[in-house]
């Protein structure tokens, strides 16, 4: 077997005290505003544990579940190992948590006195105790207990890393496809999208939050993030796209998740090559997405859910974000951009009103409302036809 395809994970035992300190460093690193760190900072944060990387699910454990884990450690019941993967974050080698987020959070929260022990069945005398309330011997026992960590370092390429995550994922509670993409295709654009979606979650009444139909479920399953990557891909590269498969042969993108997949891969590989214009290209991506969202906000002044069929007068309860509509709007935005339309003038109430009237008319006559059309609503061929045929004068 070729040594190019051996990942050689290392297995070591760390005390919970050491893990706690590394997690603390991870939180401290993530809170730093600057992107470029000093040599002293890089050394300080080396192997910090990032307890909740982009691809991890949101934390869902109850205090009772957390307490049960602490009780297990107190009485010596083995706790399953933590899986970590090396990763560069702000120039620092850190360790992302592939599996074990809930275990790590439980211990970190308890060591930080964030909850009292609850519903203990064996060590019931410790119910209602914070970490600092425990006897010194119990505190030392917890701090000194070992947890096995399995660390993956130096994957031989992104394709291989993706395969490892997929194979490991089959033996655990499955991650969504977008969870895995976030794990593998790290980039500044990936970070930007995750922060953008987190902002939507934090401000649910914001017009953009409503436009993107943000919800806890869509955020946790990374559905919103996937939707944004599809939009970014079309804004940047158009609706009709051709990519190279693993054998180097060209193939057409024909499913909406593929837009996200290939776009995220492209951005990740671009950063790995240390492209001379990387910063300028990344800034251009951010600026174009900001401009697109201004476009969406101007539409949202007329219809609350612009990515739904409500944009052309068809109410569909419970489905406030339709990928087909988002693809069409992204395609139209790209077309207007290429035509060098003055967006400040275009986004005026008068022009947006006329634009929406025409869009409503065309969408009602489109394949989306054709009773004989049975293929996918996100079919790139149909989306491209619609975009090509749409003409609007500011």
Describe the structure.
The protein has helices spanning 16-31, 39-44, 63-75, 101-111, 136-144, 158-170, 177-184, 188-202, 207-211, 216-220, 223-237, 256-272, 278-300, 323-338, 343-346, 349-364, 380-389; strands at residues 10-15, 48-50, 82-89, 92-99, 146-152, 242-244, 250-252. It has 394 residues and is α/β, with parallel strands linked by helices. The chain is elongated and about 75 Å long. The N and C termini lie far apart (63 Å).
Explain the layout of strands and helices:
Blueprint: E1 10-15, H1 16-31, H2 39-44, E2 48-50, H3 63-75, E3 82-89, E4 92-99, H4 101-111, H5 136-144, E5 146-152, H6 158-170, H7 177-184, H8 188-202, H9 207-211, H10 216-220, H11 223-237, E6 242-244, E7 250-252, H12 256-272, H13 278-300, H14 323-338, H15 343-346, H16 349-364, H17 380-389
Parallel strand pairs: 2-4, 3-5
Antiparallel strand pairs: 1-5, 3-4, 6-7
Helix pairs in contact: 1-4, 3-4, 6-7, 7-12, 11-12, 11-14, 14-17
Q: What distinguishing features does this structure have?
A:
17 helices; alpha/beta; five-stranded mixed beta sheet; 394 residues; elongated
How many beta-strand runs? 7
- Proportion in helices: 40-55%
Through-space gap between termini = 63 Å
Largest beta sheet: what is the strand line-up?
Answer: 1-5-3-4-2
Uncertain spans: none
User: Can you write the helix and strand succession as a string?
Assistant: EHHEHEEHHEHHHHHHEEHHHHHH
Shape: elongated
Largest sheet: 5 strands, mixed
Number of helices: 17
Structural class: alpha/beta
Name the average pLDDT: 87
Estimate what percentage of residues fall within beta strands.
Answer: 5-15%
